[in-house]
Write a structure and sequence with these properties.
The protein has 10 helices and 8 strands. By secondary structure, the chain is of the alpha+beta class.
Length: 257
């Protein structure tokens, strides 16, 4: 039985499994292909290609846009701001378009990590990107927030003497070197106290939403409103953070008033 489980895990980890198009990864889109080529054409190694794509996606402004459905990679490419699932979709699509195997590993985090943005979530899910480099899967989630957001959030945490909040840890990593794992939480998923559990690997956010584990986490009604329920509150908090204007909060709870 254990041999079968090991064989299945090995098949799941095979890099060639993670190069194809999917519901949200519209790899045949001409603008996506051109962008991937433009970003990587002068790169001399897989690491350089991955970093060029990572830096492009990271520069997209982090936000919580209102949307009726999950966006395709091309739709994210055309947008002015993007949330974690959006940026994850675009990152994986551009990596695969460049011939680099990439996938998403969803993890469940304690809602405390969103302190300062919202206090209404007990737990949240986050997509870690896993990229096949140097014959191993390298994990990174620092692509989610742009540099300006990261700097402002880190300063706000220091000012309030909070360890976690705004989706990051005060000493979390802000950039990725293209070789090692890098996490906004500052620690590996096995060591991070904010991580509740590993939810598995997926091609894109739609693949995750259609999974059994997602259905267990979100009853049908909550799934219907999941994408947009936090948009007004979180959007206001992000705008205040970018403006370096602290929102009106209860300092002890982080609850927006």
């Amino acid at each position: 039985m254990q041999d079968l489980a090991d064989e299945q895990a090995g098949a799941l980890d095979a890099p060639e499994r993670w190069l194809s198009a999917s519901a949200l990864l519209d790899l045949e889109d001409s603008r996506l292909r051109l962008r991937s080529h433009a970003l990587t054409q002068l790169c001399t190694s897989e690491r350089d290609k991955a970093l060029a794509i990572y830096n492009f996606v990271k520069r997209i402004l982090y936000g919580r846009p209102f949307k009726l459905r999950l966006r395709t990679a091309r739709q994210v490419f055309d947008a002015s701001q993007a949330d974690a699932p959006d940026k994850a979709t675009l990152l994986v699509a551009l990596m695969r378009s460049a011939g680099i195997p990439a996938r998403l590993r969803y993890i469940e985090l304690r809602g405390e990590i969103l302190r300062g943005l919202t206090s209404t979530m007990s737990n949240i899910s986050r997509p870690l990107a896993e990229i096949w480099l140097g014959d191993r899967w390298v994990s990174v989630d620092t692509y989610i927030v742009d540099a300006a957001y990261m700097a402002a959030a880190r300063q706000r945490l220091k000012d309030r003497d909070w360890e976690w909040g705004y989706g990051i840890h005060r000493n979390g990593q802000s950039v990725w070197n293209g070789m090692d794992d890098a996490f906004l939480g500052g620690k590996s998923t096995a060591e991070d106290p904010m991580v509740v559990r590993d939810l598995g690997v997926f091609h894109d956010p739609q693949h995750f939403v259609e999974s059994a584990i997602y259905s267990q986490m979100h009853p049908r009604f909550s799934r219907a409103v999941h994408l947009n329920i936090l948009v007004p509150t979180v959007g206001l908090a992000i705008r205040d953070l970018r403006a370096e204007r602290p929102p009106s909060t209860d300092r002890g709870t982080g609850k927006l008033s």
